[in-house]
Write a structure and sequence with these properties.
Blueprint lengths: L8 E8 H4 L5 H12 L3 H8 L4 H18 L12 E3 L5 E3 L9 E8 L2 E8 L3 E7 L6 H8 L2 H8 L3 H22 L10 E6 L3 E6 L10 E9 L2 E8 L7 E6 L8 E2 L8
Parallel strand pairs: 1-11
Antiparallel strand pairs: 1-5, 2-3, 4-5, 6-10, 7-8, 9-10, 11-12
């Protein structure tokens, strides 16, 4: 069924790996085959290079989610979508028949969860992280965070420090992805400050040649283990609303999700 994308909404689609492809069952095996049938030869080649079945399955899920969701908004079959990338690797739609929809999208995945952001007529970036990973938080923060962000983390401990680390990290990643520049942006030059209960302010180094007021941010925790940040171009004439939807590609229709914004 074709979906409308109101000018004041950004749609966030999520798929949980454990409900789609993570179990060795006949149903999940059948889904993997259906997902693989949607891929281009290049995508199938990419899938075959994964060493672990879990990583290959997650890759299949991400590609199926992008293709099936975009087909809800434009008259293109899932297997017919074509994409091109910029110099930094950010994908964009290359189908001429989808130009009228003026769609932009961004994808992120981590252990157990895939999130796809879809918008119309604006740049968008999304990042999701699993908060149970064992990387040394403060070592990463010392290399990638601004002095103010690092000082904020030093004033916290335990679970509070862990959550704040991933709040900063996902916000930074969502911004770099929205701009389409990826690792070309030094993360220390992108600095956030939390403004309770839900807000954040952004400070940018002059060398980035950007204006903080150009961007709007939201942050969510769809599960106790996952942090999500969304970045989109600020729309002066309207208030944007993120709308969450959950699906299993090619199996279930979408159903709405209630996801609370993160309190700071």
């Amino acid at each position: 069924m074709r979906l409308g994308l109101p000018a004041d909404e950004i749609h966030l689609w999520c798929a949980y790996a454990d409900t789609a492809i993570d179990h060795d069952t006949a149903q999940h095996d059948a889904l993997r085959l259906r997902y693989r049938a949607l891929l281009t030869e290049a995508e199938r080649s990419q899938e075959s290079r994964f060493r672990f079945a879990e990583d290959a399955g997650r890759y299949l899920l991400t590609r199926a989610l992008v293709r099936t969701v975009l087909s809800r908004y434009a008259p293109v079959a899932p297997q017919d979508w074509r994409f091109e990338t910029n110099a930094q690797g950010k994908p964009r739609i290359a189908n001429p028949e989808a130009l009228d929809a003026d769609l932009s999208f961004n994808l992120s995945h981590t252990q157990g969860l895939v999130v796809l952001a879809v918008a119309a007529g604006m740049a968008v970036g999304v990042d999701v992280e699993y908060m149970g990973c064992g990387t040394s938080r403060m070592e990463v923060a010392a290399a990638c965070f601004s002095a103010a962000e690092y000082a904020d983390l030093q004033g916290l401990a335990g679970a509070a420090q862990n959550q704040r680390f991933f709040q900063y990290w996902t916000l930074k990643e969502s911004y770099t992805k929205a701009r389409g520049l990826g690792l070309d942006i030094p993360l220390q030059q992108v600095s956030f400050q939390h403004q309770p209960p839900h807000g954040v302010s952004l400070s940018l180094h002059p060398s980035l040649r950007d204006v903080a007021a150009r961007w709007a941010f939201w942050q969510f925790q769809p599960t106790a283990q996952h942090m999500v940040a969304l970045c989109a171009e600020h729309q002066v004439e309207r208030v944007m609303t993120p709308v969450w939807k959950r699906t299993i590609p090619l199996q279930d229709e979408a159903w709405p999700m209630q996801v609370e914004r993160v309190r700071t």
